[in-house]
Structures are given as C-alpha cells and as structure tokens.
Amino acid sequence: MRLSHKVAIVTGGGSGLGRAGALGLAQAGAKVVVSDIKPEAGESTVAAISAAGGDGCFVAADVSRASDCERLVNAAIGRYGELHILYNNAGIALPFDDGFAPRVDPAVWDRVIATNLSSVFYCSHFAIPEIAKAGGGSIINTASSMAHLPLGGLDGYAASKGGVALLTKSMASGCGLMNIRVNAISPGYVDTPMNAMIWQSEEMKAAFAKGHATGLQTPEEIAEVVVFLASDESRSLTGAVLNCDRGWTAFKQPDMFR
Ligand SMILES: NC(=O)c1ccc[n+]([C@@H]2O[C@H](COP(=O)([O-])OP(=O)(O)OC[C@H]3O[C@@H](n4cnc5c(N)ncnc54)[C@H](O)[C@@H]3O)[C@@H](O)[C@H]2O)c1
After folding, report:
1. Which atom of ligand 1 is nearest to 20's Cα?
2. What are phi and psi of 110, to 5 degrees?
3. Is residue 226 part of a domain?
4. pLDDT, tens digit (0-9, with 9 covering 90-100), for 198-233
5. 167: Cβ–Cβ under 8 A, 6 or more apart, which residues?
6. Per the domain annotation, does 255 fall within a domain?
7. 157 catalytic, yes or no?
8. What is the separation, in whole angstroms, between the first and last Cα of the chain?
9. DSSP alpha helices (H): ranges in 134-240?
10. Quick one: which H or E segment has residue 58?
11. Which end of the chain has the least Cβ crowding within 10 Å, N or C?
12. Does the pTM of the predicted model rise above 0.85?
C-alpha cells in the first residue's frame, strides 16, 4: 500500500474533509491519529477506520491552543513511536459573526485566526522535529479558494486562509533539508456540514454548484488529493498551494458572487 509503515495526524478529523482524509490515509495503509475538539465525532471516525480494517486512534485537542497541539504530537509518538504525515485540516467558518472588517468583533477575528492559521503553526512547530527524526515526510495544510478569490463578507476567514497559503511556502523552504515536503490544498466548495451552515437553502447550494466547472466537490475527492500529497508520488511538489477546486478560481463567477 502507498502509505504502509507511515504514521499520520489528522486535525479536525471528526467531520467533512478531515473525516474523509483520515479514512483515505488509513485505506492507503497509514496508521492515523485522528484529532478533533469534539470527542464523539473523532471517535466515530476511528470506529470507521477500524471497521474498514485500518489502524487508528483518537486524541482530543483544541488546535487553537499551542499546549493541545504539543500534547497531540506527543500522544502520536507515544502510541506509534514515530510521525511522517501531518494533515492540518481543522478549521472554522463563522458566517454569522465573521464578515466585513468594521462589523467583526476583534474576539471573533482572534478565534478564526487562532483556529485556522495559528493551529497550522502550532502543530507544525511540534511535529516538524518528529517528522525529521523519522527521516522526513509530508505536511498538508488546508487553505481554501478564499485564499485566492475571497467571496467578500468573511474577512477573518479569507485572511486566515491566505496566511496558511504563505506559511506553507515559507515552511517548505526551511523543511527541505529535513526531507519534509510542505504543501497546501485550496478546495472550492465541498458538500460538508461547514457549508450546509453557509448555504441554508437548496437555491443557494445550486448557485454555488454552478460556480464550479463540474459542480460541487465531495470530501472523498479532496481526500484523494491529500493521499497523493502524503505519498512519494507527489515528490516533485513542495511549497505548492494546489487549487483543487473544480475550476472555481479559474473563471468568472456567476453574478451573485461579484
Ligand atoms: N467545506 C469546504 O467547502 C471547504 C473549502 C475550502 C477549505 N475548507 C477547509 O477545510 C477544513 C475542513 O472543513 P470542513 O468543511 O470539513 O468542516 P467541518 O465543519 O465539516 O469539519 C471541521 C472539523 O474541525 C473540527 N474543529 C473545529 N474547531 C476545532 C478546533 N479548535 N480544534 C480541533 N478541531 C476543531 C470540528 O469539530 C469538525 O470536526 C477547514 O479548514 C475549512 O476551512 C473547507
């Protein structure tokens, strides 16, 4: 299998892209440490990994806190002895609180930046020395089409994802000598609980679908990109921010998005 003998951490692994990514990595042979702020959700992903014959465990962590990220990496080493893959997936979108800068409470801004951007720094900070000790590996960060083409009205989210894209490139440079590749994915709009909260109606969902060349994305297709980035097949890629968005950022959006 492509990822046999590899150990992976997936943050936010209890739902959506993280759950599909954890299942995909396990199916490719990796041992997967699933982490989430919601224990029930994370445990359910581990149960699905086990039911499919894979090897996984759950560690509760709030990745907006540096101390939780340190505990998560230590728990992964404690359980499996080494670490090769870090999938920084956990993130939040707060459509009712985040918005146009003058209307955003600074506390909301801080929460979005801590959860979506500082978490990537925290987990990488603690994981990089461990991945280096294992001889190298792959870090996959989660940016967004919003890092390249903001919708408007989610200023904190757009800034956090733009930060993830640049942090990815910057860390890739330092990680090269340790044989660690660092890349980011920028999905378009995927049918997950996060977007269900944003869309609120079938009409809105259909309008978002129309903005992609070939329709809405699935968590499983993004998981395939993640498994590719985790595997040696992507050895030419580091410092890349992949627009895996079915064309969302490639052409003009319908009127409602201008
Ligand atoms: N869904 C999309 O269309 C889309 C597009 C581009 C990027 N993304 C990004 O992909 C990632 C996953 O999105 P999703 O749609 O699967 O969302 P989701 O809401 O379905 O899942 C996110 C998971 O992260 C967990 N989480 C939230 N805050 C956390 C914290 N502080 N610590 C640990 N875990 C936490 C949640 O409990 C949940 O299980 C996010 O970073 C999101 O910004 C999503």
Report:
1. 16
2. -60, -40
3. yes
4. 888 899 899 899 999 999 999 999 999 999 999 999
5. 117, 120, 121, 141
6. no
7. yes
8. 45
9. 155-175, 193-199, 202-210, 219-230
10. strand 55-60
11. C
12. yes
119 phi and psi angles, rounded to 5 deg: -60, -35
Q: At 178, which CATH number?
A: 3.40.50.720
Buried b (16+ CB within 10 A) or exposed e, 187-214: bbbbbbebbeebbeeeeebebbbebbee
Model confidence pLDDT, tens digit, residues 96-146: 999 999 999 999 999 999 999 999 999 999 999 999 999 999 999 999 999
Q: What is the chain's length?
A: 258
Domain count, the chain: 1
Residue 253 lies in a domain: no
**Residue 235 lies in domain:** 7-242
177 C-alpha to ligand 1 centroid (Å): 31
* Cβ–Cβ under 8 Å, residues 17 and 222: yes
Domain assignment present for 70: yes
Q: Could you tell me if the CB of 41 is within 6 A of ligand 1?
A: yes
* Pair of tokens at residue 221: 């297709």
